[in-house]
Amino acid sequence: MPNRLTRPGAFAYAVVTLLLAYEIVWMSRLDGFWTAGPIRAGVVVAIVGVLVVLFAAATVTRTPVVGPGDRLLSRIGGPTVIGLTLVALLVVAFGELDNFVMWPTAPALFAPFTVRRLEQAYFEGVDERRQEAAAARAEQQ
């Protein structure tokens, strides 16, 4: 499996990036979110901002966030996404941010793993087809 995202994988990361960016805009417009405590709300916005930067970098460089590879983003991307999402959820749960729902952040947790599985299946199919084509060429000769 190459250490580079396919176009559909990069598109999936771009969608996650846009959802997270929309979440930042949405949070900044919620009055009740900021009255509960600007520090806690700022921490959540900062965490989502870091996730936006991480997924945007992965989209632009077409580097998988989770997967085998020697690139820094591939090595630390998965644990970083999991850790940041859990910290944001804990801040929301234990803070006074009860009316707030982190809807795109939780699915962003599963997106890198789903993209990795789909791309593995795709490349396994490509390799299988190449082997079948090579066997068919060998039979014809």
Automatic annotation (TrEMBL):
Source organism superkingdom: Bacteria
TM segment ranges: 9-27, 39-60, 72-94
Keyword list, A-Z: Membrane, Transmembrane, Transmembrane helix
Name this protein carries in UniProt: Uncharacterized protein
